[in-house]
Amino acid sequence: MRNRLLYLSRHLPWLVLLLGLDTMSALLLWLSDAEAFGVLVPVILLGTVLLFLMVALALDRTAQKRRNAFHTFLNNPDLINEESLIRTVSASERESVRLLGTVLREKDLACSRAGAAAEDYEEYVEAWAHETKTPLSLLTMILDNQGDEIPALAAFKLEYVRSRLQEYVSQILYYARLKSGRKDYLFEHVDLNECIDEVLEDYSLLLKEKEFKISVQTPELSVFTDRRGIEFLIGQIVSNAVKYSAGGQEQPELKITVEQSETEDVLRICDNGIGVKACDLPYIFEKGFTGDSADAGKKATGMGLYLSKKIADDLNLGLEAGSEYGKGFEMTIRFPRVTTPHKGKQGKPLP
């Protein structure tokens, strides 16, 4: 109803014009001293208003039909909807509608091809990453079972290469996972200490290489999240701590603590590395951002913290960063408290 009133208001100038003509007609009748002047003037005015309303409503109905046909055509610009729209427009507009339909169909076809190509590329990347895991597993098996037969320096280098490759493969898989519509997260109660120990074990060689002093002060804690996701998230933070560790005489340190409150559990991972400049800190979660933190920034891909932020958002976790340049970096992961009722034999929640 409101739309119709607005439509009528747009045509008020025409009503004013018609009423002006009625006024002139009434004046002529009055000047001619017509006997029926008093009767004809109200009839003329009433007829004018009624004619205006009928024409305006008819035009409004036609315009509404045209709008509906146009919206349908935009959503699906096939030939059937194009012909339906053409029947509602003037002859001068039909050629424009046909041109628009051709362009939209070409764009839709290009988008479909691009989507299919992106899906093929995604499947290829995932297949490549999974296939790469086979030689990595073989290399891990050799290093575990025959490490004593390999010279210490060669074994160390091989293990270093294996660790880095494993990290990059994990990044590729998680990137593909985030971009696809198939996110197979498994939310469950996870022992946070087990996740931390698993990550530190995976990065043990890199931590030993830089002679990190590690301090883990975490109570027994179960969080409701996806195990693989949180391990990847912690792993990227530890990897960054290693990558941007301080040089010189100062021993690198990694400190992991947990703070608990009634509403959330907060995991803090701190290092004493080179940190991040204040001007770079707001952008560290952006895709491809590496900053200019000495030589480490030149080797970085800018994907680790970007993926970490995306995964944290998917898992409904708070992820915050803080740093004082030259004195260290701190990453905070906030786990909201989630209570899930345990069920008894009859499927009823237990008290």
How would you describe the overall organization of this protein?
Among the domains are: 2-89, no CATH class; 187-336, Heat Shock Protein 90 (2-Layer Sandwich). The strands form two sheets. It has a five-stranded mixed β-sheet with strand order 2-4-5-7-6. Strands 1-3 form a two-stranded antiparallel ribbon. With 351 residues, it is α+β, with helices and mostly antiparallel strands. The chain contains eleven helices and seven strands. Helices cover 60% and strands 13% of the residues.
Output the CATH homologous superfamily of the domain at 187-336.
Histidine kinase-like ATPase, C-terminal domain
Q: What is the CATH C-level name of the domain at 187-336? A: Alpha Beta
Could you say what the CATH architecture of the domain at 187-336 is? 2-Layer Sandwich
Choose one word for the global shape: elongated
Succession of helices and strands = HHHHHHEHHEEHEEHHEE
Spatial sequence of strands, sheet with the most strands: 2-4-5-7-6
Share of residues in strands: 5-15%
Q: Give the oligomeric state of the chains in this entry, treating copies of one chain as homo and distinct chains as hetero.
A: single chain
Sheet bearing the most strands, described?
5 strands, mixed
Level of helix content? 55-70%
On the 0 to 100 scale, the average pLDDT is 80
**Rg for CA atoms:** 36 Å
Count of β-strands = 7
Count of DSSP-assigned helices: 11
Unreliable stretches? 342-351
Helix/strand-derived category reads: alpha+beta
Distance between the termini: 55 Å
Q: Determine the CATH topology of the domain at 187-336.
A: Heat Shock Protein 90
